[in-house]
Design goal:
Blueprint (H helix, E strand, L loop, with lengths): L5 E4 L5 H12 L3 E6 L3 H13 L3 E6 L5 H15 L4 E4 L16 H31 L6 E6 L12 H21 L4 E8 L11 H9 L11 H12 L10 E4 L9
Parallel strand pairs: 1-2, 1-4, 2-3, 4-5, 5-6, 6-7
The structure holds NADP nicotinamide-adenine-dinucleotide phosphate.
Amino acid sequence: MIDRPVAIVTGGSRGIGRAICLELGRLGWAVVINYATRPEAAEEVATLLGQVGGVATALQADVGRADDRQRLVDKTLEQFGRIDLLVNNAGITSVGRRDILEATEESWEQVFATNLKGPFFLTQRVAREMIRLIRAGQMAGGKIVNISSISAYTVSTNRADYCMTKAAMSMMTKLFAVRLAEEKIQVFEICPGVIATDMTAPVKEKYDRLIAEGLWPIRRWGQPEDVAKAVAAIVQDAFPFSTGIRIDVDGGFHIRVL
Ligand code: NAP
């Protein structure tokens, strides 16, 4: 078994996941950089981590597929022997961003598989492995971090499926938090606001305008590193007596203003 803590970061090859992988690497963690379709992006993150003395491996798996999730966990255990942290970060937006009256079942199925079913069953499997390792005295505890969104409580009528998966992820955080507390596993939800990544690139002009108009108090784009810093705080045990909490990384977007 490797002598440093091990993290699986789903969707670790680009955007927010990439920043989380790099931050964990800096903190001395071994990182499994999961990706779905673009090996070159994941390999680049692995190379960057290798250059600073990190331990990292890129692993393809579609989190929406049961056999892929199984392989992701099996390979991680085969290579490192432990899983101290799971970051459920992989996610996709609504396909075609169609109005709710035109929304399709194809988008629903893809978005729910990636954003909700995948994280739920991956958490279930990883939690079982963590419990086994903790009970055997091989790990002191475990942590699970779910990357949700302000869309968990904010309506976008052209992204109904996306919003619903993120709302469900908030409940999923609380469900696992309660079940896993006695097993020494903490569960957190990080709720990012608008973050500059490939996902938001197609709507950049809209958000540039909304930011200039002051839609949230801190008038700038969120950066992937803003989210990574919240993960860093969690893994450095900044919240030893917390579980099931939502950490807002949103420039203050969640505050209602009159
Ligand atoms: P992104 O730049 O589009 O990157 C998505 C990542 O997820 C990529 O690494 C991608 O891998 C991977 N991925 C997609 N589908 C996957 C699947 N089925 N299985 C495994 N990996 C998969 O996205 P992002 O903006 O960083 O978003 C990351 C998370 O933050 C998402 O859950 C998103 O909902 C959430 N979020 C984002 C924002 C924002 O403003 N950007 C705000 C709030 C919440 P490949 O490249 O290989 O496909």
